[in-house]
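Suppose you are handed only these lines of text.
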Amino acid sequence: MRIDLHTHTTASDGLLAPRALLDRAFAAGLAVIGITDHDTAAGVREALAAGGARPPGLEVVPGIEISSSVGDSELHVLGYFVDPHAPAMRAFEEERRGLRIERLRRIVRQLQAVGMDVTEDEVYAQPGGDGAPGRPHVARVLVRKGYAASMSDVFGRILSKDGPGHVPVEKPCARDAAALIERCGGVPVVAHPALDGVDRHLDELVASGVRGIEVDHPDHTPEARERFATYAEERGLLMTGGSDFHGDGRKDGGTLGGTTCRPEWLEALRRRAAGR
Ligand code: AMP
Ligand code: FE
Ligand code: FE
Ligand code: ZN
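From them, the structure of the protein bound to fe (iii) ion can be written out as follows.
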């Protein structure tokens, strides 16, 4: 039984539409897929909507990945078994979308100011660019137009802190992200803590209400996985795993089902979500 609890769709910066992702998951032999778009559950709503054929027997775990911050670090908080229709979720999506659109406008203006030929419309025209538009949508335009060699080139040179396209965006703290997820019936889990120096803050995150850790992720070394699993076991935290599939085979997003979640981890997560 193979379970991938971390994927993105065209509701955020993934390249596959929700139903196409389900078909791909089924073809890859997955039994369970978690849909965890950045700052939106719109992809979950679409995946679960009535009508159209869905792959038989494929379970969809409704999720979200909230962009937040801890200290100076960017922090992603996964939320599992959230109600994608919860009023608090819809309000959060609207608020974040407004801020993302504002940030995008400023990024594009700054890039134009250094002579790059890029427009807001081009960014919105990218897959998912009209949902939760983010830096990946800008990056894809820049790569296509030859301003950069790859997505990581854009993030490292153009959208980085000292790059011309850097625009900080206000983000919720860990406590607020965790509280929102719980208000929507979900379980908050720290995403890929080996990235962005988030692992230095684990104690603080646990104190802020996060209930689990993403142990298995394509960017985690075997040593990191071991360390996070031990950390979680010692504190009775939940554990998860997933590929962070974005649909485009790039280095930092895994292949669908390439990193999985152990069945007993999912069952513990399910029990926790049902127990509230
Ligand atoms: P945003 O939603 O605008 O904050 O963008 C964050 C997303 O950009 C991450 O979740 C990744 O999907 C993507 N990303 C971040 N760093 C890189 C990188 N170095 N190369 C490619 N994609 C990246
Ligand atoms: Fe992403
Ligand atoms: Fe992430
Ligand atoms: Zn992700």
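What can we learn from it? Residues 65, 76, 191-192 surround fe (iii) ion (ligand 3) (CB under 6 Å). The mean pLDDT is 96.
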